[in-house]
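Notes to self after the Tuesday call (sharing in case useful).
The group wants a holo model before anyone commits to mutagenesis around the pocket. I volunteered. Ligand is iron/sulfur cluster. Logging inputs and output together so the record is complete.
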Amino acid sequence: MKTMSISPEIKGWCPGALRPMMSGDGLVVRIRPRGGRLTTVQAKGVADLSARFGNGLIDLSSRANIQLRGVSDAAHGPLIDGLRDLGLIDPSTEAESRRNIVVTPFWSEGDGTADLARSLAEALTGPGAPQTPGKFGYAVDVGIAPILRDTSADIRIERTEAGGLVVRADGADRGAEVTMDSAAPTALRLAEWFLATGGAPEGRGRMAAHLARGALLPDAFMPVRAAVNPGPAPAPGPRTEGFLVGFEFGQMRAETLSILAEIGPVRSTPWRMILIEGAHSVPAIPDLITTLHDPRLRVIACTGAPACPQALAPTRPLARTLSAMLPPGRKLHVSGCAKGCAHPGPAALTLVGRPGGTFDLIRNGAAADPPALTGLAPEALAQTLSTE
Ligand code: SF4
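Result:
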């Protein structure tokens, strides 16, 4: 009989396209769209490849990546060939792993975002790029206002209050003011400093934790007045740049992506939504979440059992049921185990699967935090939550 581990497995690396991760429903093949954008041809192509070589389900990740699920070992090679034809494959697994960049989706032509993202990607995939840990990443957040501060990244390129550019270490309010040309080299030098000062013992580590342990940034990093963050993650609906749409649990069907690709290029976001460039409206497809008031946005749930081999309980059917009883503004995170993949941060309510298929309840915390209630049967959760 198969035994289950209670402690989630920590891999320390992120799956990619060339190095996919095995899940309960097959390989998960993660695409990192360059500049966070798929052209209409690429988006249509990804949808076709998902339907042909995967199970037709496409996940949006919290680092703005796009994941094709349900790929068999035999289908992986032909899928990679198809993605390479679309210009979506890096030359090596090392290059793919290092090109870990989240780009603000709210950019406009000529504001420098696309150029910065391109030059950073070239620098990170070139010879001699720092060998940072797999989870180490960069944010290009140079729209009018920074919008990625809550998105995982170790080195951030942002606007200063005066509209210039600054390279900032995550976890510090100090930064180095840069130009369009010096931004990428400065970001790489900061990554080299991180490695040289022991930020990644045994190949793992993150910038904020390194600084919290007392590492002092180079002298060139001075206090900067950064542009003011406009607030929480944006709501679905029309925007200046296009139409932002969400999906239940951040997962869409290949047919849906194919339809959206007919409208325009798509930009990935770290909020598990996509922005359809230049669109003022979207077709009435039940999959699409187009308003902040949709109860499906009140729940977050990972893949859970049976698709995730580490899951101790199914998650999404439960989250779907419970979403209807959550008041607006209240967030529920249902996690198949304490790893909390779908939402590393705190939520008002978090349910974590336990051996035997019961759940623990954590109030105002993350999946690995101590629970307030333990051993709750799934059938009793609606009653329990009604009193929370
Ligand atoms: S949090 Fe969910 S997806 Fe992540 S390992 Fe646990 S069960 Fe699997």
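Two things stood out.
The chain has three domains: 21-89+240-289, 107-223, 295-386.
The first helix runs from residue 40 to 53.
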